[in-house]
Amino acid sequence: MQPNDNVRTSYLKFFLIFFLLALLIGFAFWWFQQDEADPPQTTEHAFDSGTIRWTIEDYPAKVLHDNQFTVEIKDTQGFPVHDANIKVKLDMLSMVCGDYVFEMTEVATGKYGGDGIPLMAGIWKATLTLESNEQTYEISRLLKAIH
Ligand SMILES: [Cu+2]
């Protein structure tokens, strides 16, 4: 056995260990991201004057496309809330790639719809501003956008 062989073996071991570690770290990142990604298609929210059921019709949302957002608003007695003003702001978490703001219009009593356009793939925060009976409420949720 030549001294060179020993050196070669330890290099090989080193690279193998390095490779396995890199694989493990990569997997850990992937696992972690899987875990915190994929907010649900429909979210339910309770606020001071009632409840909101918030759905993104085609989910995950598509980047640079119109995505139909729907909210159903009920008061504390469970009756639809008519004639509310709704605005939604989309912004990407921990990024400055630009916000997207749109309004929602009432499509049926207490049911509102509007189109949101995420600008990049990833997780977005949607903040809904609701004006009803001279009160303003803010409700937030997360959503996933893909290409
Ligand atoms: Cu971004």
Give a short summary of the structure:
The protein has 147 residues and is of the alpha+beta class.
Question: How would you describe the overall organization of this protein?
Answer:
With 147 residues, the protein is an alpha+beta fold. It has 2 domains: 1-36; 42-146, Immunoglobulin-like (Sandwich), CATH 2.60.40. It contains 1 helix and 9 strands; from the N terminus they run αβββββββββ. Strands 1-2-4-7-6-5-8-9-3 form a 9-stranded mixed β-sheet, with no helix packed on it. A hairpin with a 2-residue loop joins strand 8 (122-132) and strand 9 (135-146). It is elongated and about 85 Å long. The N and C termini lie far apart (56 Å). 16% of the residues are buried. The site of copper (II) ion has 5 residues, from loops.
Order of helices and strands: HEEEEEEEEE
Number of helices: 1
- Rg on CA atoms, Å: 24 Å
Can you name the CATH architecture of the largest domain? Answer: Sandwich
CATH topology of the largest domain: Immunoglobulin-like
Mean pLDDT: 92
The major sheet is characterized as: 9 strands, mixed
Number of domains: 2
Please identify which CATH superfamily of the largest domain we are dealing with: Immunoglobulins
| Percent range for β-strand residues | over 45%
| Uncertain residue segments | none
- From the spread of the alpha carbons, the general shape counts as elongated
Tell me the total number of β-strands: 9
Strand-pairing-aware structural class: alpha+beta
Ligand identities: copper (II) ion
